[in-house]
Amino acid sequence: IELDALAVPAITTARLDGLQRLDLELTENAAGVAVVADAAGHTSVPGVWAAGNVVNPGMQVSEAAANGARVAMTINTELVFARADDAVRGTTATVRESA
């Protein structure tokens, strides 16, 4: 067969070396294999977030970086609220104990 050009799709696979034991939910499409995560980066494993081209192999560098920044803000916010919730619970317990 004589050809002037040949197009071959690239398949991208998320690099999850060392994370197999977490049993993250994965998905596969034409772009490759990716970690399943919601828009905030939550994966199927509590406390594990994913962002960028690990969740969408078709993302360009700038989009992946922006997604990573958004997920980082989510992580920070959740950690701040968790500490605030812990502080409130601690205060409530102290108030009840001294009453």
UniProtKB/TrEMBL annotation:
InterPro entries: FAD/NAD-bd_sf (IPR036188). Gene3D superfamilies: FAD/NAD(P)-binding domain (3.50.50.60). This is Thioredoxin reductase. It comes from Candidatus Agrococcus pullicola.
